[in-house]
Amino acid sequence: PRRASEGEMATTASAMPATAPARTSARPHDWRRRSVPRPRASASSPSIARRHRLVTRAGSLFEVATPVRTTTELDERDAFKRLMERAGVKHRVRLASGARGRGLFPSGPVGWGKSAVLLSVPLDVCIVAPFGDATAAGGAGGVSAAVAEELGFSKDPPEKAKKDTYGILRAAWEKRAGVTVPETITSLSRSGDGADRELAVALWVLFATRSGDAERNVWRAYAEWLPTAEELPSLMLANDKELDQLQDEALKREAKATQNAADALFLSKKNQNTETDGSASDFFVIRDGLEVTAEDARWAFALVASRALASPVGDDGSSDFAAILTPFFDMANSDDVSLVSASKSVRGTADADVENAARVVLERGLNQGVGGPRVVLETTRGLESADAEILISYDPTATNAELMLRYGFSLRGNRNERLPGSSGSIHKDAKTATTRQTRLESEILRFALEETGLMTEETSAEERRRLFVAVASACGGFGNPEEDQGEWELDDAQVRLEIACAEAFVDAWAKQLRSFDTDLAQDEAALTAARAGSLPGATPRIVAAVEYRAERKRCLETGMRALRAYVEWLQEEEEEEESAGGFVDQQE
Q1: pLDDT tens figures, 12-30
Q2: How many CB atoms lie within 10 A of CB 466?
Q3: Whether the Cβ atoms of residue 446 and residue 471 lie closer than 8 Å to each other
Q4: What's CA 60's distance to the chain center, in Å?
Q5: Which end of the chain is less crowded, N or C, counting CB atoms within 10 A of the terminal residue's CB?
Q6: pTM to 2 decimal places
Q7: What are phi and psi of 376, to 5 degrees?
């Protein structure tokens, strides 16, 4: 064998010196195997370490790629985690920042095979107060007895025994927090007037976050994790400049009405708290040393509106509802129902249901090792990694305007949106003595969208939902594809009516699109600048308003594009079928 030249490495056994001793334990030679060369440094080649780095960068069959993290930790010192554990919360979650901003993420893959508990918060850590118009809260026996027993109040002397559910839950909260809810709050919560009850919940939040010892009162410590008035996107806190950014006068009026109602309620109760000289106070005195302003109350109202869970409390069949504010839960973000990965439930009393995006069930007993009165967040589908965000749905039927008014955000591709236009069926126009159609045929429109390539498997989920909105808006409903007969026929007159109706919708949507002060491209540029931190004067409410109006324009543009494609499809098919004397279902 020839000798390897300088810098060349021997690659076979035959290149070894002839004097090398034979290995009796060597495996039989396999001509298909090649020995791996040992890197050798030379004056003209990189070092062994350097070569190794080059090979690694080029990729190795033995190299295992490290997954790229898509979240940023927000609890690097475990303060949030320690607070959960101090509150007796069982958890498998972490606080991080992802595509939707701050939210809850699992500590690892979870929920495969069966539903798994992500968060379990004792009910005595939660603020539970009557909410909405109803008779005076409470009621003896039944559910109250069950709650009292599980919270340990059944052992109290008769003179201390609680007679109503709310009293039991409030006493449990006081015992845990080491503070007593002032009479100014409890008297309002006992009122049968819904406005008084709403103010009571807001004042309780202010009292809870400003009273007691942070080591014992979870809410006092949790206050640092709650958004400030400047950070909340709620329209309850928006000024006129921020409301103008909605470019929606109807929504602006609703937001102003909500603000005015909250201010009027606060002022009406504040004026009942007078100074010692009889003059009106500028504050609402919750208790000695704790006074709150109208601005404080607005912040609390915004928190309650965006974070409270509504649930029936009391005997079965009770119409009395409670607002349940659960710390740690409120960090979970909301999205479309198709993306939801977790649901809430309240456990520890009797069975009942409430219509809400989050499944709310009141039941007594254990569940997956979690027992007693508590609020539970559990998976509805598997979360494949620690970067899979835990998502719930605040309201699966709300439009973007409703979401903005209640919570301060909107959804991209919200299936509940509807575009302007008349609904109905074909009817006679008395003035012109002509027939006018005001609703499209949903089955034919859906078929056409697939035929034209607008609705395919490659269409993004957001755009699919916008197409759903377009169909539902133009047809008076989306219809049920499973009930499609696949047998339809339009004559020439019907085709012309369908085309005229579609064009009327396009004109109406184009008119609304032109009514905005900015176009979609300008809005997208503003959102890009806001994400980069380079949009002057951008507050969370302004950014939320721009996103709201941008999504409205995206829906309008998608709807116009869909119906224009529909018109072209109808015209093309009409020409092809003209000789056949009818516009026949192409599936036949």
Answers
A1: 344 434 444 444 444 444 4
A2: 27
A3: yes
A4: 41
A5: C
A6: 0.78
A7: -120, 135
